[in-house]
Each structure stands twice: as C-alpha cells, then as structure tokens.
Amino acid sequence: MKRAFLPPAEALLAFESAARHASFTRAAEELHLTQGAVSKQVRQLEERLGVELFRRVRQRIVLTDAGRLYLHEVRGALAQISDATRQVMSFAGSADVLNLAVLPTFGTRWLAPRLAEFLRRYPSAGLNLSVRLRPFDFDAEPFDGAIHHGDPVWAGAIAEPLFPEDSIVVASRAFRDRHSIRAPADLLRVPRLQLATRPLAWRQWFEAAGVDTEAAYQGQRFDQFGMIAEAAAHHLGAALMPRLFVEEELAAGKLVRLFDTSLTGRSAYHFVYPERRTLRPVVATFRAWLLEEARAARIGRETMLPG
Q1: What are the tens digits of pLDDT across the range 77-94?
Q2: Other CB atoms within 10 Å distance of the CB of residue 69
Q3: What's the pLDDT score for residue 7?
Q4: How does pLDDT run across 118-164, given as a tens digit for each residue?
Q5: In whole angstroms, how far apart are CA 203 and each of 90, 131, 194, 196?
Q6: Cβ distance 157 to 283 under 8 Å?
Q7: CB–CB of 141/101 below 8 Å?
Q8: Counting runs of H as helices and runs of E as strands, what totals does the chain give?
C-alpha cells in the first residue's frame, strides 16, 4: 500500500460531509468542528491532490468535475470501512463468529427459522449473514461459508450437496376456486407468476404434466421466490415454487398445492466453504448441523403425501 497517496482520514471526512451538505458550516456542525477547521482541511486536501474539489460561489460551495469523481470513490471507501468496523464489532461478546453468505429466499424462508436450534447447540456462536447471489473469492471476502444454488462448482472451494430444488405449483385457495382450476391445462388461462432467473421452469413443468403449449413463458416476472410466494398468497396468480420455500404457507393454508406433478431441477443447493482453510470449530459444527437439517428435510419430503 502506497501511503503517500493516503490523505488523512479527517480530511476525507470533512470533504465528504461538506460535499453532502454543500456547506462548510453544516459539515462543521456535523463533525463538531469549527467552520474554519473544515475549510482548512478541505483546502489542505486540495493542495495535496493538486486539484480543486470545490468552486466557491459567494456563500455556496459547488463540486467541480474532479470533486464529483473523487466524492464517488471516497464515499464508497468510507462505506466499506464502516461496514468492516461494524462486522469486527460483532465479535464482541462471542467466542466464535460465523460469517455466512446466503441466498435471500433460502436465508429468510428455510435457514433463519432453523437457526435457533443451531444456537442452542453452539450458544457461544455469533452469526453474521450477508446476501450474495453469485460465487466469489473466499480469499477476498470475509466469509466462512456460503449457500450456493447451481452445479457443485466453485473455484477454490468444496461444495457439499444439501438437497435438489423440488418445485410444485401452488396458489391461494380463493384463486383456485375463483378460476375453477381442476386440471393442469386450466393453468393456461390464468395468471402465472414467473421467476426471472428460471425462465424455462413453467415450460418444463407443463411438459412433465403432459400439456403441450407455446404460452409457458407468459406471466408477471419477479426477482425472488419470496416475492412470488407473497404475490401468490395474495391471489395474484399461480406460482411454481420450491416446496421448501412455501412450507409455512402450505401448513397455514395460505397456499394450496394444485397438482401432484413436481419439477426437480438438475441443479441443487450446496454448502460451500474454502478448501484451503481449516474449519474452525464453529464452522465445523454449523456444517454438521446444516447437513443434518438438509437430510431431515429430504426425508420429510420423500415421506410427505402429495397435496
């Protein structure tokens, strides 16, 4: 790291605050400094950089083009430092902290309701869960493991299978009755909810159900399964959902399964962890617990009656 290019932190904070407020006076109030101190820090920063960051227009300050570019980068760097600080502070009071990258719907609908049992087994553990949608470099990210959907391929990591994605068609009882849905072909004349990242799913389900159609791609699109589940529970349409993400709605009667036909994808959910890193006790315990929960979920689905 070339320290010659690192300005003092207080100068960066003064610049960011002044730029956000477009005022040295308001920046001084926020930072508990005098207006003169903020102005001096920004002026010294400009001298260090060799460029003008603000234009002084009477009683106002306006960012220059260089100032706008620098603000974007400085603001991002300060946000990263703030996030890192909060993450490190979470270690306080915990003998062991587990940092996990999770998929949003998997995290909220399957993992989170089960975490109390893990914490009962490992009461000294701390948990940090962050959303990551794509594979990343474990050497560059502070994660102990991740939940991955897809093929068991992740550079520099071990991927252990949890369970396949077994999808079923669901809707609210009111939606089913209002549209008199009795056979798979009836779904062609009602609104169907689509997941943007599974564009072929409905076509594959119709094929499995013996329905020949060119209209499988029609329907409103959503980014996440959680949004689709809520939309279906509020009578917006029929949804093709992984069964593990609608267990609560099915049990509560908010959604009903429309047909026995299910769609098991070729890809699956995996627990992924870096292959070059020795598993800490909290990670090893979480891995064993997660694989046990996944096995119980698989057995539960295999013994569950259709409906």
Answers
A1: 888 887 666 666 555 545
A2: 13
A3: 87
A4: 999 898 888 899 999 999 999 888 899 999 999 999 999 999 999 99
A5: 46, 29, 11, 14
A6: no
A7: yes
A8: 11, 10
User: What span, in angstroms and rounded, lies between the C-alpha atoms of 256 and 170?
Assistant: 5
Q: With 50 as the cut, is the pLDDT of residue 102 above it?
A: yes
* Distance (Å, whole) CA 182 – CA 195: 24
d(C-alpha 59, C-alpha 63), whole Å: 14
Q: Quick one: tokens of 27?
A: 């920046």
| Per-residue 3-state assignment (H helix, E strand, C coil) for 77-137 | HHHHHHHHHHHHHCCCCCCEEEEEEECHHHHHHHHHHHHHHHHHHCCCEEEEEEECCCCCC
Scanning the structure block, which residue is given the tokens 């407020």?
A: 21
Paired sense of beta strands 54-57 and 60-63, if any: antiparallel
Residue 299, pLDDT above cutoff 90 = no
The answer to whether the CB of 119 falls within 8 A of the CB of 125 is yes
Q: What is the predicted pLDDT for the residue at 252?
A: 95
Q: Quick one: average pLDDT of 104-117?
A: 93
Q: Give the mean pLDDT of the chain.
A: 89
What distance in Å separates the CA atoms of residue 83 and residue 87, rounded to the nearest whole number? 6
C-beta of residue 95 within 8 angstroms of C-beta of residue 285: no
Q: Locate 239 and state its tokens.
A: 């949804």
Give residue for tokens 């062609």.
Answer: 188
